[in-house]
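Q: Hi! First time doing this. I have a protein sequence and I read that you can turn it into a structure. Is that right? Here it is:
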Amino acid sequence: MTLATLNKTPALESTTLTVLGIESSCDDTAAAVIRHAPAAAPAILSNVVWGQTDLHADFGGVVPEIAARAHAEKLDLAVEEALAEACVTLTDLDAVAVTAGPGLIGGVLSGVMLARGIATATGLPLLGVNHLAGHALTPRLTDATPFPYLMLLVSGGHCQFLLVKGADSFTRLGGTIDDAPGEAFDKVAKLLALPQPGGPSVETAAQNGDSARFALPRPLLDRPGCDMSFSGLKTAVLRTRDALVAEHGGLREQDRADLCASFQASVADLLAGKARRAIALYMDLSPAQPTLAVAGGVAANQTLRAVLQKAAQDAGVQFLAPPLALCTDNAAMIAWAGIEQIRAGKTAPQDFVARPRWPLDTEAKPLIGSGKKGAKA
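A: Yes, that's right. Below is the predicted 3D structure, encoded as structure tokens:
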């Protein structure tokens, strides 16, 4: 079956689709199989994710070259495991969907080349998926959320409020003008000698801390609009740490816990405050079923989930957050985004290219600037 065949199928709306998803945009090697019949909820037949934490532990962050090599070594094995777990073969598939960007280009290329090889060998349709669209469409995979809905996409590399109007229709209401929250969590963890990835480490340390001890800033919270900033907050943590080290000759365990708790509270206040403004803009559209959804790796943080849920409840808006396994990078969301493309009749040609940058809202002005590689966000 080709994309042209799929697009010309008279009863596409009633066709059951089985799609293989491949994800390798950062440091998670992932493959998944999803089956969807329009009258039923999507079935995640398999969702294999292999992390690379041990490979990058000594470097304080993800090393692109190491990540790319690990993907090249393990992607085919991840696909084999996903197919076996789903009890399907390549002949049972209707299409292959792969992350084509944005991300670390070496990893993205590894996934695209494998997917292209599978498609060429089998004749299956090949779909290039925007990694961010995978996150943004996750509420439709988990909860069949109708369009339009408000999405806070918050991860290691991205942070933006999106109005999700369709499978390939996104309007950005605001975003970070510098660091993403996940990046800030990683950098704070490194400053405080906590293990990577930083998000879980900071969250765990914060459980024993006093969030009111240090008066850290809430950048841009006093300014209108939905744009955010986290770089200054990270710098404030650095200065506070240095003052503690100078005063006590080192960083005590309680100091570290209190600093983590204060940092996390500042991020929570920032996201909740900007979420309220985004909800107000969203509600001007008078949606029939107003929903605020959150996705991305940072959405796994329970404190942040709680404050966002409170902001939604206060505004009379439904709140949705995916299961933790679907917050971080995974291939199930990529397979689902591919299914959404097919259902919407928006299929990509097989000659798409891997892209390090690929904004969802192509009409919006770049928040962080744009160069030869295109807009970053």
